[in-house]
C-alpha cells in the first residue's frame, strides 16, 4: 500500500529593508505577534534575522507569508500591537473559515460522538482520515491525542482496521526514563496514560482490558522484547 505524509510545505523569504527596530516591532513582545499568526493560520514561523521560514499546509503557508509581508510594511509607520495584528488578519479574510460538513466535524463511536471544536481540529481529523501517517504539532490540551484515538476507535469499530497499536519510541526526550523504577514497559506506561484514558472513555475499561489481554495471548515472548537504539 502506498504511504503518504501530511501535506506540509515550507517556504522561506527575506524581509526588506533590513531594519532592527522594524523587525522587533514585527515580532512583538516575546514573539507574541508571530504566535498570534501561527495560532490563527495553523502554521509554524521561524525567524533567523531577516530570513523567515513558514511551515504548514500549502494554502496557509501562502496566506501567512502575505500577512507577514503586510505587517512588516506597516512597521514603517506605526507600532504593531496584538489588536492591530488581529485586525489585519480579519481585514484580509484569513479568519474566515470554509463551512465544514457534518462528516468533517463528527467522529462517531458506539459510546459517544466526538465533535471538533474549531477548524484546526477539523483539518486534523480530515488529514488523519486521508493520510496513513500524520504529525500533530501544537500545545498541550488542544486535542491532538484524544482526537487521534477517537479516529482509531472509529476505524476499529467500523472494521477499517483490525487492531490499534499504541507505541512510543524508547528514546529519552528530557524525561530521564533511566531514573524511573521498573522495567522499560513500566517506565513507558505513564507516557501512554493519555492514550489509555481516551480509550477507556470511548470503549470502556472492560472492553479495553479484554482487547489488551486478547492481544497479549497471541504474542510470542520475543514480541515483548523492547529494542533500544
Structure explained in plain terms:
The structure is a single chain. The protein is mainly alpha-helical and about 230 residues long. The protein has helices at about 20-25, 30-40, 60-75, 80-90, 100-105, 120-130, 145-155, 185-205, 205-220, and strands at about 10-15, 45-50, 50-55, 105-110, 115. A three-stranded antiparallel beta sheet has the order 1-3-2. Strands 4-5 form a two-stranded antiparallel ribbon. Helix 6 (about 120-130) crosses helix 7, helix 7 (about 145-155) crosses helix 8 and helix 8 packs across helix 9. The longest helix has 20 residues, at about 185-205. Mean pLDDT is about 80; it is low at about 1-5, about 95-105 and about 220-229.
Short description:
This protein is mainly alpha-helical and 229 residues long. The chain has helices spanning 20-27, 32-41, 58-74, 82-91, 102-105, 119-130, 144-157, 184-203, 205-218; strands spanning 8-14, 44-48, 51-57, 106-108, 113-115.
Amino acid at each position: 500500500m502506498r504511504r503518504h505524509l501530511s501535506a506540509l510545505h515550507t517556504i522561506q523569504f527575506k524581509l526588506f529593508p533590513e531594519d532592527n527596530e522594524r523587525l522587533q516591532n514585527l515580532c512583538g513582545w516575546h514573539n507574541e505577534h508571530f504566535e498570534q499568526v501561527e495560532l490563527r493560520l495553523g502554521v509554524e514561523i521561524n525567524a533567523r534575522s531577516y530570513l523567515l521560514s513558514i511551515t504548514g499546509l500549502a494554502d496557509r503557508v501562502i496566506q501567512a507569508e502575505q500577512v507577514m509581508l503586510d505587517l512588516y510594511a506597516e512597521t514603517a509607520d506605526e507600532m504593531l500591537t496584538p489588536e492591530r495584528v488581529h485586525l489585519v488578519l480579519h481585514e484580509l479574510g484569513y479568519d474566515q473559515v470554509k463551512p465544514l460538513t457534518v462528516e468533517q466535524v463528527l467522529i462517531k463511536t458506539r459510546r459517544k460522538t466526538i465533535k471538533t471544536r474549531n477548524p484546526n481540529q477539523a483539518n486534523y481529523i480530515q488529514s488523519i482520515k486521508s493520510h496513513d501517517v500524520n504529525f500533530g504539532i501544537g500545545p498541550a490540551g488542544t486535542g491532538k491525542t484524544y482526537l487521534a484515538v477517537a479516529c482509531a476507535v472509529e476505524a476499529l469499530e467500523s472494521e477499517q482496521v483490525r487492531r490499534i497499536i499504541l507505541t512510543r519510541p524508547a528514546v529519552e526526550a528530557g524525561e530521564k526514563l533511566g531514573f524511573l523504577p521498573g522495567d522499560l514497559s513500566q517506565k513507558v506506561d505513564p507516557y501512554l496514560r493519555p492514550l489509555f484514558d481516551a480509550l477507556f472513555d470511548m470503549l470502556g475499561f472492560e472492553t479495553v482490558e479484554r482487547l489488551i489481554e486478547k492481544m497479549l495471548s497471541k504474542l510470542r515472548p520475543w514480541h515483548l522484547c523492547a529494542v533500544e537504539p
